[in-house]
Amino acid sequence: MIIIKRVYDAVSPTDGTRLLIERLWPRGIKKTSLKIKSWIKDVAPSTELRQWFSHDPEKWHEFRRRYSAELKAHPDAWRPIIEAAQLGPVTLIYSSHDTEHNNAVALESFLKARLPRKKAKKAAPTRARATSKA
Fold first, then answer.
1. Is residue 128 part of a domain?
2. How far apart are CA 7 and CA 28, in angstroms?
3. pLDDT one-digit tens code per residue, 60-102
């Protein structure tokens, strides 16, 4: 399971593995106070893409397309997140004020599409009883 949460939101026991997914450290947060397992800078959008997007909702669809292309080119950056999510809950921590148009929303969608699907348990086949004709 992968969820997203703002860096300013309270930590919850259900967060599981908390990963900061920003290229820059969040403003106003002390490194000693943020409860995260890891800071994964390389999974964040490139500086050029982040600056181009500038959290403009009008650029959202193109941002997602470009960011997805960056992610596809660097699977080594996001594969550890998939591996962690296969073991338990993962919370991607982000700092954007816009909760709908940000790299965490795009990354969450990208990663969920790549998570292996859980296979449904197959019911044991039922055998037809042989009937005897007397």
1. no
2. 10
3. 999 999 999 999 999 999 999 999 999 999 999 999 999 999 9
